[in-house]
Amino acid sequence: MIALVDCNNFYASCERVFNPALIGKPVVVLSSNDGCIIARSNEAKAIGIKMGEPLFKCAPLIKLHNVHVFSSNFTLYGDMSSRVMQTLESFTESMEIYSIDEAFIKLGGHAPDTLADYGQAIGARVRQWTGLPISIGIAPTKTLAKIANKIAKTDPRHNGVFIIHTDSDYRTLLEQTPVNDIWGIGRRITVSLCKYGITNALQLINQPDEWIRKKLTIMGLRTVWELRGISCIHLHEQPDPKQSIACTRSFGNTVSSKESLQEAVSLYVCRAAAKVRAQGSAVCAMQIFITTSRFNREDYYYNSTTIELATPTDYTPTLIAHARKAVSNLFREGYRYKKAGVIMLQLVDKDQLQTHMFDTVHRNQQQDELMQAIDTINGKWGRDTVHSLATGLKRQWTARCSLRSARFTTSWDELLKIKN
Amino acid sequence: MKITYHPLDSGIIITHAAPIVAATALSLPILLESIPAGFPSPAENFVDRSLDLNEYLVSHPAATFFIKVEGDSMIGAGISSGDILIVDRAQEAAHDKIVVAHINGEFTIKRLKLINETIFLMPENPKYRPIQITEEMSFEVWGVVTFVIHTVR
């Protein structure tokens, strides 16, 4: 059997672990620039705050219900996530970390009637060790485990654990599952299935394989088989290397100078390049974009450019030099820019690179050593310990995060303080 | 310390100092056996391995948190203001353990006592009063204090 473990309202729950005054109160967490709601406690959901809603739109609700608002604290959430994953590891030999707050784990060798207790034991340990509440869906396939998880989360009668046994009758469950709630079925497919009168999972699995393959491709057929209880999507214990890596951010305040834009874009290049190196890749092309706020229709400007590199590289200074030139070309005087981004494209395996005939091996080796040294230092002492001067010193354009809680678990200066 | 390199010439310059965040593990070599009198031995036989303080102080890394104390209500238990506590959430709270708990949304550190099925949180400083946990209070044990890191001045 496969279990999908998912932390409930993860970011909001992390805030609560270190601030028990928030228990039972509505809590929301904002996106990286304090722009939109990205997490809500159950209480915040109940008063009608929507996921993804811009902060200014729900400001009246927040004031009326005295909602506790936090800037996102990804340092804290990342550390709490790894604690959850470490705790889960003690229950399984095989685990796929699916996102910051979700993991698939393999449960082997449990008698069917003991699974519910085992699920409860997992939930209790994660809750005790990390303080975070989780929901667990257990089923023979990943797609069904997702459905089971949703039931575990929404129906309090199951106390956070729900199991789908495919040898007993689970057709009612499928009938109650709308097509767009199925893992792997997107909005486009939902619309096209709707045209054939297929709106729930039961209707979908009753279609002949040939028809499904024609309409939904082989990927859709896999999903349907999974819904029928045949496992087709296996656990990925090692994530596949990414095909592209992006770093895009909104600014705290709008930026109108070319120099500030160049600084910001240089910083994003640094961040993305470090990730490129971490997965052993090199970049063949790099896309840069700058844009004003999309809410401001009158003075809207967006432009982007893609740079093809003669030699694939992972060397930050080279990438920064290209990026600065690109920004200089894209920049138009008189606009208030709100956001910029870098997308590293066509990533290739660095080990299999053919060296460019004009580049000396010696120079490449020196560059590799410099990048390795910087990545090691930043890995140990915190990112930005060593950074390119091109990324700026004051960085007045950086995102707002005025409501961020302390980095309780990763910084000696910010430990939880208890007055005693 | 913040070090900055310039992208074009790669020359490294130091721009400004910033606090260092955290090291991962510090290991110190120690002598695991004492030298038997009158029995000479080559010194390298005694350097057995390196010691990692984490191994001694942290049994459950995923469940261990560091907390800073402000105040003197537990001074009798050797917990002074400014100390850092090592708190293990994997340990079961029990009678006589020092715990981090929260009462009505506020954290406190006290010794847990179970007397006739009533929970008390006991300070270890005569200036403070015991707290009796009643039905109306929201109360939860957050973790068990396992070690105190105290800077000797």
Major sheet: arrangement of strands of chain B: 5-6-11-7-8-9-10
Class per helix and strand makeup of chain B: mainly beta
* Strand percentage of chain A: 15-25%
Give a quick account of the main beta sheet of chain B: strands, pairing sense, barrel closure: 7 strands, antiparallel
Largest interface: A-B, 45 and 49 residues
CATH topology of the domain at 245-391 in chain A: Dna Ligase, domain 1
Radius of gyration of chain A: 24 Å
> Which series of helices and strands of chain B comes N to C?
EEEEHEEEEEEE
- Supply the CATH class of the domain at 245-391 in chain A: Alpha Beta
Structural class call of chain A reads alpha+beta
Element-level helix/strand string of chain A: EHEEHHEHEEHEHEHHHHEHEEHEHEE
From the spread of the alpha carbons, the general shape of chain A counts as globular
Mean pLDDT of chain B: 80
CATH C-level name of the domain at 61-149 in chain B: Mainly Beta
Chain oligomer state:
heterodimer
Characteristic terms for this protein:
heterodimer, A: alpha+beta, Alpha-Beta Plaits, Dna Ligase, domain 1, five-stranded mixed sheet, four-stranded antiparallel sheet, 13 helices, B: 153 residues, Umud Fragment, subunit A, seven-stranded antiparallel sheet, two-stranded antiparallel ribbon, 3% helix, globular, disordered N terminus
